[in-house]
């Protein structure tokens, strides 16, 4: 159907969703460009103390 | 920043002067301009926050980095401040006194309170450090020489900047002393001569010669200079000739030009001064003359100025000072004639003026008022209305052009005149202007002269830069703090002397004033960090790069913003009261790494709060105050979590109240969490707070609300937490626009229920809250689903762009004596600055088996790594110890180095002498050194016992088994098949479709029936899918990549080999006996009604009861989908017949996310919602042909009776029976029989058993879109394994010696991962056997084994005991 | 007991939590006595009673297991 498919994906945003997408794709054979505006990945989740409903430490 | 060089040591941060609010800490703490986002940030490297050039620097004609030196003054680093200033200005102390400071007019602090006292801070730096001591970098000396005419600021500056370019110059000065107007135009009380002399020395110290008494003129022409070998001439003769008044009597005794008056006074220390002196003019010269005259003994000094004070060009502070000193200013008056008696001034006739229209300069023109003449009694008149250049010396110079104002014409960028090799600048070119302007022109001329010598275009690339819409650090939260007054000499001490009036700030004052700087550009470019960074990772010249990248797909996950309650300040008092905070800020307060280190305290008084209120739905479910009609989905749960955690943090008991409309705990295990919080005393108030007021002094908050029972209540709290919702980020909306993808009504990315992660544009997928508010597990599901969708598009190119590294063949070290190499890292000064690294290295040499030692500045740097590889080879090392930072962060890097050197990576060991030594014992240097030695000794001892380990690999079967043929199972099967993985779909029933068969529409209205038909068709016809209907999984064995599952169809049994399993066994609505269900045909369950809506078009009244057998003891969880389903059904009934009365009896309406819109619509359409509590459930009775429902309405506080034709019950959703499946794959289920995921938050699709994935309602009740997303996610997760040829098993595993094993089974019991199983061994009986693929390397089995038959690789007894013994010596 | 008594402690820290926590203490520059000697294990469950005995026999004043 298509001639040349490019085996890479750009993921925009390095929060929890972006990181998960990037990991899944990289682990299944695609080259991933993870683009994050700030200096570190982690997004809003990295600011949280604990997570419900297990009260696990977010880090 | 060069990320490969940054070692995350933080030395840069320590020296950075710029303190900014930390965004990560929500502004509750500060960070530096060079910073790491948070302690555990990945990447762990630092970065610098910068923006456009600050307005002060832009306003400065010389372009001085004002913010830079202000910050240096703030931290008391005057030397660096001067270095920054002198980059662009050679005369810091002079300009620090006399600069007109345009920078202060541009200062953005003007909008907050007063501008920063920039000039005075510059002076402070020059007062505190001798600028002559600053080392000036000069290029190698060149041959060309330049003649500079005039030693004023323009001439001096040109000489300075030429010298820095290696070009020698000679300054020719006509007066007996150098300095130009600085010396003869500015009186000493403003600029002490000692300062002037000192700063002229800065220039002469660079080898510049100043020839005084050397005027240009008949004896020295420009041509003479050229003949003397000067290749270029710079004319900077200034403007020293006073402009005449043009009134009668100007040439008599007693009339003197202001500039002449000041010049004589400066050069000789005296001049004739009258008793009653009038000065005419309103500029700085007029004021300087006036203030000099009064110092020289004039009794009455008056300034006559023709406009008002507003128009006066003199500095404001100068006008103030002159008034202080007793000088009078006669505004709106102009001289008409000088009254002469006996050839001397006897008076001055003036006329009053009034202001007319604005002239071309924008100032209003003065117009004489007829008949208003008056006379002043004076004996000296000093005109000071302006100056012009004295061009008499240039009359002979052919080629120079002059303007009509008597100034030299030059090219506005290069300052070149039309006379070849002649340049001009300063007042002679501009007319009388500022010192800083003259300095700037000198700097530019120096550049031009060098280009002239080099034969380069003098103009190219030098056009002034202007910034459109510059972006600066916002100041809206900056508190008002007024400018510090400059201390001055008391007025009574000024008479009769020229002592400096402005005394200069003290250091403390200066630092305080500098602290007012807003840091508009964030980073101040002081570059202290460059010096501090030993690895050289900081580069301030880095520029943003634009790159174009070819990709096959795009996934958008850029999230949302948090609602900013600033917008509703009047209501929430968020900005004005520190005891009102957002939930995110409260998270930071609770966090151990947060601004209060996890101590629960209020920010206003640092006291622990005793009573906290959470206000729900701030910026959500609100179309009045903000435009966010949706529910943010997560706030109820996080608020409850915050109450629970806050209670844990509290020392003296804490009362927590949550003010809400509904509590929406609809996720897995959320309802239990909610119920538990109630038991722990969290109070839930169903009310919307209508007013918040501050209690004076305590700064507590009074909440005013109406209780459920209608009472008006006012209640006081110590702290109010606003449960802020999510809001589409502006940047995300812009991005969507750029990518041309559709957004929905709330500006979230639009998707369809049946393709939840697919945007309107092919190839672009979406995940997380950018698509709509949702919690973390749901975001993660979507993230994997998007990866699956992108993977489906790109399956043909899988693996085409990933690269694998090749390493040299491994050297066999078995049987060799240990040859240990020890590399000790200084980590810049992080280790070496505290511990004595050379002595550690020396010590390491003495340890057994150590054959090589080395000290590194940075062991992790690329060049050290390369050297290390060579050293390992040369020294034939077979064990390597690096004493540096932590193995958690750096072991993988050094293990790669081992592989590069041909050594097995497990022959490597780290001694953590930074994170766990020098960083934590920085005040005890000797003890830190001793401890580091011990740590090295322990590592060396252990390393002698290290053994090479190999990664085991287990081949992967890549077919897949999907259990369950509903929408989830079919979606999974189809996605697997499309990506080329052979799939078996096992369905218990005789047809595919599952519970979706009972639904007509999704909540957004998509037709489920036709979707289902299409999906079933695709699945049944796909050659890659083997559909087995009427089939059941009966047993399974194996592990990830290698499962064998037994499936039974009728009497047939079939074994399927596969690499991964997806469990999608679904769920169903529970049966019920309540509310006459099954007894009266008018009582239905939700799907009965869904199928038969059209059967009841004539009903007068329909009642829905929610939570039947749900959220109670039998099913203590929320079934998530029922509220939305009932409301949609109600809407459909209303649509068919608006006259039908529809009632929904509920406990909370949980239309989460954008589903809130249907709730809102239902209310608009007249659906009646009545809340009931489980203690007062509705009671249903038959009433003749109809039904009667009795319910207590809390709003009107009485019982209601509703007569109804139909009653629909929303019963709980439960997991379909799946015990054989869960037990076959050893899947744990929760108390509600739903399959448990590996991690509730982070691995919502993976099961505890590797290689098994869960999706759909077998996991938890969920709507169609979420089931589809989770099914796609399961595919993505499985393909992570299936796309590999083999799975590598970590070599750090347990190893059983079956010779020593006695088959007791303790290890089997102790293993949490089922990685050991009993095995029958011929002739021995039962023996334990490792399944290494499942082993996590914890070592519990080794401890449990009574026979010591189990060895833990890489952590064996020999290795650990060697460490224990080595560490025993006490320093 | 002498006033300047500084007990020497042998610590077994789990790679996944306590050891990472000790690293974080470093990043945060928390100061504590320099008499702790850390051995990293893949799980605190790896700590054999034998190791504790070995520590005490070898003169450590205490053994700390964290994970």
Written account of the structure:
The complex is a heterotrimer of chains A (59), B (1371) and C (67). Helices cover 20% and strands 24% of the residues of chain A. Chain A has 59 residues and is of the alpha+beta class. Chain A has a domain of 36 residues. In chain A, the strands form two sheets. Chain A has a two-stranded parallel ribbon. In chain A, strands 3-4 form a two-stranded antiparallel ribbon. The model of chain A has no long low-confidence stretch (mean pLDDT 88). With 1371 residues, chain B is an alpha/beta fold. Chain B has 39 helices and 61 strands. A five-stranded parallel beta sheet of chain B has the order 7-6-5-8-19. A five-stranded parallel beta sheet of chain B has the order 22-29-23-24-25. A five-stranded parallel beta sheet of chain B has the order 39-38-37-43-56, with helices on one face. The model of chain B has no long low-confidence stretch (mean pLDDT 93). Chain C has one domain. Chain C is built from two helices and three strands. The mean pLDDT of chain C is 91. At the B-C interface, helix 27, helix 28, helix 29, helix 38 and helix 39 of B face helix 1, strand 2 and helix 2 of C. Strand 1 of chain A pairs parallel with strand 20 of chain B, so a sheet runs across the interface.
What is the strand and helix layout of this fold?
The complex is a heterotrimer of chains A (59), B (1371) and C (67).
Chain A: E1 8-12, H1 16-27, E2 31-35, E3 50-51, E4 56-57
Parallel strand pairs in A: 1-2
Antiparallel strand pairs in A: 3-4
Chain B: H1 11-15, E1 19-21, E2 30-32, E3 34-35, E4 47-48, H2 55-59, H3 66-74, H4 78-86, H5 92-98, H6 102-106, H7 118-128, E5 145-149, H8 153-164, E6 168-172, H9 181-184, H10 193-204, E7 209-211, H11 222-227, E8 230-235, E9 241-242, H12 258-268, E10 276-280, H13 284-295, E11 300-304, H14 316-324, E12 328-330, E13 333-341, E14 344-358, E15 364-368, E16 374-376, E17 380-383, E18 387-388, E19 422-424, H15 427-430, H16 435-454, H17 507-514, H18 528-532, E20 553-556, E21 560-562, H19 569-572, E22 580-582, H20 583-590, E23 611-618, H21 635-649, E24 655-660, H22 670-679, E25 683-686, E26 691-694, E27 701-706, E28 712-717, E29 719-724, E30 726-728, H23 730-739, E31 764-766, H24 776-794, E32 820-825, H25 837-845, E33 850-856, H26 862-874, E34 879-884, H27 887-900, E35 908-912, H28 914-918, H29 925-943, E36 952-955, E37 960-963, H30 967-978, E38 983-987, H31 1008-1021, E39 1025-1029, E40 1031-1039, E41 1042-1049, E42 1052-1058, E43 1060-1063, E44 1067-1069, E45 1083-1085, H32 1086-1091, E46 1101-1108, H33 1122-1136, E47 1141-1146, ...
Parallel strand pairs in B: 5-6, 5-8, 6-7, 8-19, 10-11, 10-17, 11-12, 20-31, 22-29, 23-24, 23-29, 24-25, 32-33, 32-34, 34-35, 37-38, 37-43, 38-39, 43-56, 45-52, 46-47, 46-52, 47-48
Antiparallel strand pairs in B: 1-2, 3-4, 9-18, 13-14, 14-15, 14-16, 21-30, 26-27, 27-28, 36-57, 40-41, 41-42, 44-53, 49-50, 50-51, 54-55, 58-61, 59-60
Helix pairs in contact in B: 3-4, 3-7, 3-17, 4-7, 5-7, 7-17, 8-16, 12-13, 20-21, 21-22, 24-36, 25-29, 26-27, 29-39, 30-31, 30-36, 33-34
Chain C: E1 9-14, H1 18-27, E2 36-41, H2 49-57, E3 62-66
Parallel strand pairs in C: 1-2, 1-3
């Amino acid at each position: 159907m298509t001639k040349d498919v490019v085996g890479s994906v750009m993921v925009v945003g390095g929060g929890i969703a972006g990181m998960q997408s990037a990991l899944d794709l990289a682990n299944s054979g695609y080259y991933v460009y993870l683009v994050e505006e700030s200096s570190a990945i982690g997004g809003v989740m990295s600011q949280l103390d604990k997570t419900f409903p297990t009260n696990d430490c977010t880090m | 920043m060069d990320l490969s060089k940054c070692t995350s040591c933080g030395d840069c941060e320590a020296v950075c002067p710029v303190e900014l609010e930390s965004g990560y800490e929500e502004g509750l703490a500060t960070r530096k301009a060079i910073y790491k986002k948070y302690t555990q940030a990945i990447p762990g490297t630092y970065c610098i926050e910068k923006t456009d050039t600050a307005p002060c620097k832009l306003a400065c004609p010389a372009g001085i980095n004002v913010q830079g030196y202000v910050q240096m003054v703030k931290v008391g680093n005057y030397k660096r401040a001067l270095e920054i200033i002198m980059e662009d200005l050679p005369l810091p102390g002079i300009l620090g006194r006399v600069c007109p400071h345009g920078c202060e007019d541009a200062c953005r602090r003007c909008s907050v309170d007063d501008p920063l006292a920039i000039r005075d801070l510059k002076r402070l730096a020059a007062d505190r450090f001798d600028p002559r001591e600053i080392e000036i970098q000069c290029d190698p000396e060149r041959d060309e020489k330049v003649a500079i005419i005039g030693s004023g600021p323009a001439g001096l500056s040109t000489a300075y900047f030429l010298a820095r370019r290696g070009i020698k110059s000679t300054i020719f000065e006509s007066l007996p002393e150098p300095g130009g107007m600085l010396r003869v135009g500015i009186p000493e009380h403003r600029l002490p001569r000692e300062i002037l002399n000192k700063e002229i020395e800065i220039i002469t110290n660079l080898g510049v010669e100043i020839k005084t008494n050397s005027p240009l003129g008949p004896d020295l022409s420009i041509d003479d200079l050229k003949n003397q070998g000067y290749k270029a001439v710079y004319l900077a003769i200034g403007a020293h000739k006073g402009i005449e008044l043009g009134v009668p009597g100007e040439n008599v005794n007693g009339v003197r030009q202001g500039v002449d008056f000041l010049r004589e006074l400066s050069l000789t220390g005296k001049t004739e001064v009258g008793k009653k002196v009038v000065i005419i003019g309103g500029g700085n010269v007029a004021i300087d003359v006036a203030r000099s005259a009064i110092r020289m003994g004039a009794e009455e000094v008056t300034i006559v100025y023709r406009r008002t004070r507003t128009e006066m060009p003199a500095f404001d502070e100068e006008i103030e000072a002159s008034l202080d000193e007793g000088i009078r200013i006669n505004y709106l008056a102009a001289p008409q004639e000088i009254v002469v008696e006996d050839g001397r001034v006897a008076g001055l006739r003036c006329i009053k003026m009034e202001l007319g229209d604005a002239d071309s300069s924008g100032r209003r023109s003065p117009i004489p008022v007829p008949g208003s003449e008056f006379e002043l009694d004076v004996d000296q008149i000093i005109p000071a209305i302006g100056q012009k250049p004295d061009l008499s010396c240039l009359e002979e110079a052919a080629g120079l052009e002059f303007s009509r104002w008597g100034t030299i014409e030059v090219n506005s960028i290069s300052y070149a005149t039309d006379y070849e090799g002649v340049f001009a600048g300063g007042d002679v070119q501009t007319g009388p202007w500022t010192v800083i302007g003259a300095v700037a022109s000198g700097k530019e001329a120096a550049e031009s002269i060098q280009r002239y010598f080099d034969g380069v275009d003098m103009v190219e690339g030098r056009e002034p830069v202007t910034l459109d819409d510059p972006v600066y650090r916002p100041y809206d939260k900056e508190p008002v703090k007024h400018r510090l007054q400059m201390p001055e000499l008391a007025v009574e001490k000024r008479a009769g002397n020229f002592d400096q009036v402005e005394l200069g700030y003290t250091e403390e004052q200066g630092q305080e004033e500098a602290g007012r700087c807003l840091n508009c550009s964030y980073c101040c470019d002081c570059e202290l960090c460059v010096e501090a960074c030993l690895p050289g990772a900081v580069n301030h010249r880095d520029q943003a790069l634009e790159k174009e990248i070819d990709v096959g797909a795009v996934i958008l996950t850029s999230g949302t913003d948090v609602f900013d309650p600033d917008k509703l300040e009047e209501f929430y008092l968020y900005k004005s009261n520190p005891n009102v905070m957002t939930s995110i800020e409260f998270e930071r307060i609770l966090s151990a790494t947060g601004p209060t280190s996890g101590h629960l305290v209020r920010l206003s008084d640092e006291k622990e709060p005793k009573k906290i209120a959470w206000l729900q739905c701030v910026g959500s479910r609100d179309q009045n105050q903000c435009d966010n009609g949706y529910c943010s989905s997560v706030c109820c749960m996080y608020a409850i979590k915050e109450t629970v955690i806050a209670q844990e943090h509290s020392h003296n008991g804490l009362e927590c109240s949550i003010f809400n409309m509904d509590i929406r705990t609809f996720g897995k295990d959320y309802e239990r969490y909610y119920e538990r919080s109630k038991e722990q005393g969290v109070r839930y108030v169903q009310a919307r707070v209508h007013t918040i007021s501050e209690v004076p002094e305590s700064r507590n908050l009074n909440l005013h609300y109406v209780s459920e029972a209608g009472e008006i209540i006012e209640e006081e709290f110590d702290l109010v937490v606003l449960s802020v919702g999510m809001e589409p980020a502006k940047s995300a909306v812009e991005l969507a626009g750029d990518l041309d993808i559709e957004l929905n009504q709330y500006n979230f990315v639009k998707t369809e229920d049946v393709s939840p992660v697919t945007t309107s544009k092919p190839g672009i997928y979406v995940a997380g809250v950018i698509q709509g508010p949702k919690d973390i597990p749901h975001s993660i599901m979507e993230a994997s689903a998007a990866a699956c969708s992108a993977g489906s598009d790109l399956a043909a190119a899988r693996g085409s762009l990933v690269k694998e590294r090749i390493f040299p063949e491994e050297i066999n070290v078995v049987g060799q004596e240990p040859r240990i190499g020890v590399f000790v890292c200084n980590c810049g000064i992080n280790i070496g600055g505290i511990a004595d690294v050379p002595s550690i290295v020396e010590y390491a040499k003495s340890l057994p088996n150590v054959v090589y030692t080395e000290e590194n500045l940075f062991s992790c740097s690329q060049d050290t790594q390369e050297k290390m590889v060579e050293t390992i080879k040369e020294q034939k090392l077979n064990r390597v110890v690096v004493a540096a930072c932590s193995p958690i962060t750096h072991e993988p890097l050094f293990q790669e180095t081992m592989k590069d050197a041909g050594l097995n990576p497990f022959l490597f060991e780290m001694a953590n002498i930074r994170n766990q030594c020098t960083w934590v014992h920085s005040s005890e240097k000797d003890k830190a050194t001793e401890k580091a030695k011990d740590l090295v000794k322990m590592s060396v001892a252990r390393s002698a016992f290290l053994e090479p380990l190999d990664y085991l690999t287990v081949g992967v079967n890549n077919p897949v088994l999907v259990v369950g043929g509903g929408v989830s199972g079919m979606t999974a099967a189809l996605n697997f098949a499309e990506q080329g993985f052979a799939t078996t779909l096992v369905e218990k029933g005789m047809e595919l479709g599952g519970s979706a068969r009972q639904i007509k529409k999704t909540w957004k209205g998509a037709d489920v029936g036709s979707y289902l038909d299409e999906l079933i068709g695709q699945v049944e016809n796909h050659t890659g899918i083997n559909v087995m209907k009427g089939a059941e999984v009966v047993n399974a064995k194996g592990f990830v990549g290698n499962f064998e599952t037994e499936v039974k169809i009728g009497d047939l049994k079939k074994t399927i080999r596969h690499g991964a399993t997806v469990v999608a066994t679904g769920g169903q609505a529970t049966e019920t006996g309540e509310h006459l269900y099954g007894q009266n045909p008018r009582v239905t369950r939700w799907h009965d009604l869904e199928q038969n809506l059209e059967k009841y078009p004539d009903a007068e009244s329909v009642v829905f009861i929610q939570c039947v057998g749900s959220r109670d003891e039998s099913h203590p969880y929320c079934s998530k989908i029922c509220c939305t389903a009932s409301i949609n059904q109600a809407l459909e009934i209303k649509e068919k017949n608006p006259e039908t009365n529809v009632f929904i009896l509920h406990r909370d309406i949980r239309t989460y996310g954008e589903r809130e819109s249907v709730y809102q619509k239902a209310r608009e359409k007249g659906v009646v919602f009545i809340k009931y509590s489980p203690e007062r459930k509705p009671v249903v009775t038959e009433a003749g042909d109809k039904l009667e429902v009795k319910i207590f309405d809390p709003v009107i506080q009485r019982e209601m009776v509703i007569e109804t034709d139909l009653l629909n019950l929303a019963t709980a959703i439960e997991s379909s029976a799946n015990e054989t499946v869960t037990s076959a794959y050893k899947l744990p289920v929760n108390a509600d029989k739903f399959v448990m995921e590996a991690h509730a938050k982070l691995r919502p699709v993976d099961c505890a058993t590797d290689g098994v994935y869960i999706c759909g309602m077998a996991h938890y009740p969920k709507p169609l879109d979420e089931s589809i997303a989770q099914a796609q996610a399961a595919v993505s997760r499985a393909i992570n394994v299936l796309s590999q040829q083999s799975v590598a098993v970590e070599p750090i595993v347990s190893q059983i010696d079956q010779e020593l094993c006695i088959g007791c089974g303790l290890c089997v019991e102790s293993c949490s991962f089922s990685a050991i199983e009993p095995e029958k061994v011929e002739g021995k009986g039962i023996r334990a056997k490792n399944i290494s693929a499942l082993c996590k390397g914890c070592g519990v089995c080794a401890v449990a084994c009574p026979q010591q038959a189990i060895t833990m690789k890489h952590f064996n007894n020999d290795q650990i005991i060697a460490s224990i013994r080595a560490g025993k010596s006490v320093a | 007991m002498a006033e300047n008594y500084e007990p020497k402690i042998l610590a077994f820290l789990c790679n996944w939590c306590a050891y990472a926590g000790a690293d974080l203490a470093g990043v945060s520059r928390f100061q504590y006595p320099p008499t702790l000697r850390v051995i990293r294990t893949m799980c605190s469950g790896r700590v054999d009673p034998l190791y504790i005995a070995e520590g005490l026999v070898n003169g450590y004043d205490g053994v700390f297991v964290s994970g």
